[in-house]
Structure to design on (120 residues):
C-alpha cells in the first residue's frame, strides 16, 4: 500500500506563493500518475494538476499559468508550486497516487490533506 504525506499548506495573502509537497512511501517511478486535488468548503473535490510517470502534466483551466506540478524521483516527492494565489484557491489540497497494474484494477491512494488559505 502507498502512503502519502503532504506538507506546505498555510495562510498566505492574495498574490502570494506556496509550495506543497507530497512524499510517497514507494518509488514514484512505479506510480502511473500523481496529482493534486482540492476541496473547498461546500464544494466538490476537483482535480487541480497531474503528472505521469513519463513526465506529462495537466492542469485545470483555473490554475494554468499560476500552478506548476513537478517531481523529484530521488526524493519520491511531488510538488505543487502555487503562485499568484487568489482567495478562490482556498481549499484543502490532497495528494493522489494512481497505480494501474498490467493485469489488475487501478488503485488510488490519498494523502491526509493540507489546508491552504488565501486571505488578507
Amino acid at each position: 500500500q502507498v502512503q502519502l504525506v503532504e506538507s506546505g499548506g498555510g495562510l498566505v495573502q492574495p498574490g502570494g506563493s506556496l509550495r506543497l509537497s507530497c512524499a510517497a512511501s514507494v518509488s514514484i517511478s512505479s506510480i502511473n500518475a500523481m496529482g493534486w486535488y482540492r476541496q473547498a468548503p461546500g464544494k466538490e473535490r476537483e482535480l487541480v494538476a497531474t503528472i505521469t510517470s513519463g513526465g506529462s502534466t495537466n492542469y485545470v483551466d483555473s490554475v494554468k499559468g499560476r500552478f506548476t506540478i513537478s517531481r523529484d524521483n530521488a526524493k519520491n516527492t511531488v510538488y505543487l508550486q502555487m503562485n499568484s494565489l487568489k482567495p478562490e484557491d482556498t481549499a484543502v489540497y490532497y495528494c493522489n497516487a494512481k497505480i494501474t497494474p498490467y493485469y489488475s484494477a487501478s488503485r488510488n491512494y490519498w494523502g491526509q490533506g493540507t489546508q491552504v488559505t488565501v486571505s488578507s
Observations:
- The longest strand covers residues 91-99.
- The mean pLDDT is 95.
- Residues 71 and 78 are 4 Å apart (CA to CA).
- The radius of gyration is 14 Å.
